[in-house]
Amino acid sequence: MATPTLVKGARSTRSTIALKLAMAVSGLIFIGYVLAHMYGNLKAFSGEEAFNEYAHHIREIGEPILPHAGALWIFRVVLLLALVVHVASAVALWRRASKARTQKYAVKKNIRSSLSSRTMRWGGLTLLLFIVWHLLHFTIVKVDVSTGDTGSDNPYRLLVDSFDVWWMTVIYLVAMLALAMHLHHGMFSAIQTLGFTNTAKSRARAREAGWILAVVVAGGFSLVPIFTLFGVIS
Amino acid sequence: MDLTLNIWRQPDAVTHGALHTYQLAGISEDMSFLEMLDVLNEQLNAAGEDPVAFDSDCREGICGTCSLMINGQAHGPEVTTTCQLHMRSFKDGDTITVEPWRADAFPVLKDLVTDRSAFDRIIQSGGYISANTGSAPEANSVPAPRDKAMRAFNVATCIGCGACVAACPNGSASLFMGAKITHLGELPQGQPERYTRVVDMVAQHDAEGFGGCTNIGECTAACPKEIPLDVISQLNKDLRTAMKQGR
């Protein structure tokens, strides 16, 4: 696909780096969201009343200036836009990368890249599937797998009844492993794409940030299902 | 030492190629990798076969002409160019697979030779500074801070061999571009064109069909000149600044 001519009228916004910047910024929005979501989930340790009160409060943020659940819908719209930008840029870059090397190597070794960095695309798709499943489970249909009921109005009971089922806990823990891997490289990659790693030291810091974020978010999320399965949260 | 070589043979740019197996005996471990291929070619010549075409020029690791993907690693298992790789890095009885750089922006011309003129066009699009002709100006009239000068000199060691592209799973030339952007952008002489340079070079890079960077770091592991990953951060930062300036 090499071209013998020079590009005329180059624009920064039409470059692959612009797509990467879009991925980095939308990714940072998700990071902010998962941190808040993880913190909210830990309310399960404070018991049924505290957890349900928290869930209810999310719908009242900004009232009476905002309508009921107004802030929640603003969050949802922002997240949905970030998801569209993140996935669309990823698809565009993935297609580009597969066209950049149509003849594969017979032998190719990976020397320095981490497993998480090499699984960003398929790992991202796994997370997308998980998000669909997770929204159906807890937000849209609200299925209580132990009773088969739908549309539960008690978030705490729905949570406990879900994670009392071992395979449900396993699904969520596997998803958290995928999330940890995606965040481990994603955090570093976003910082690098935004151009904040111009020295060896700042690059090492950005890698540490990836590790810390992965452990804090995935670890924090995993606590609730594990402690529910072992009966601490009941 | 005795070796089994799997070498990519392709008669020309349009015909499809394949790996061919050759046996080679009595190779000295003091030979360079290219001298080993010279021995193979003498053997092929004597048998009336077409010798294996590969790129080389200075054979002292400074020109960037040699290439070769050796057992899945650009320039082979050591941090150096293929011409400075020696057979002592291999063992008697080894099977060595030799392939050309694989990137659609580097089309194979014959056997192991690729057309890397895409890099020339990236340089042509912005990898220069404008200077008046005439007698050379006094060298010390434009002071450069030491740390910036050191960084510029360090990344100016890029020889444009293309190992970064060859090693990158996305076939991206970001490390190469980053080296040029950083080298010129750190010095006072590079400032006037700094932000048009990055936009033009990235646009040319994209038009040549190189992939986008995913910050994986295989490029810097393969680089014979050990260009660090932070040049890609610099590239991103300069492009972001150019974007802010509406370029």
UniProtKB/TrEMBL annotation, chain A:
GO molecular function, one term: metal ion binding
SUPFAM superfamilies in the cross-refs: Fumarate reductase respiratory complex transmembrane subunits
Species: Nocardioides lianchengensis
Protein name (database record): Succinate dehydrogenase / fumarate reductase cytochrome b subunit
Keyword Iron: yes
CDD domains, sorted: SQR_TypeB_2_TM
A GO-annotated cellular component: membrane
Location(s), subcellular: Membrane
Pfam families in the record: Sdh_cyt
Keywords annotated in UniProt: Heme, Iron, Membrane, Metal-binding, Transmembrane, Transmembrane helix
Keyword Membrane: yes
UniProtKB/TrEMBL annotation, chain B:
Keyword vocabulary terms for this entry: 2Fe-2S, 3Fe-4S, 4Fe-4S, Iron, Iron-sulfur, Metal-binding, Oxidoreductase, Tricarboxylic acid cycle
4Fe-4S ferredoxin-type domain: residues covered: 148-178
Pfam families in the record: Fer2_3, Fer4_7
Top EC category: oxidoreductase
Family matches, as SUPFAM superfamilies: 2Fe-2S ferredoxin-like, alpha-helical ferredoxin
Needed co-factor(s): [2Fe-2S] cluster; [4Fe-4S] cluster; [3Fe-4S] cluster
GO BP of this protein: respiratory electron transport chain; tricarboxylic acid cycle
MF (Gene Ontology): 2 iron, 2 sulfur cluster binding; 3 iron, 4 sulfur cluster binding; 4 iron, 4 sulfur cluster binding; electron transfer activity; metal ion binding; succinate dehydrogenase (quinone) activity
EC number annotated for this UniProt entry: 1.3.5.1
Keyword Iron: yes
Record bears the keyword Secreted: no
Family that this chain belongs to: Belongs to the succinate dehydrogenase/fumarate reductase iron-sulfur protein family.
NCBIfam families xref list: dhsB (TIGR00384), PRK07570.1 (NF005746)
Record-given protein name: succinate dehydrogenase
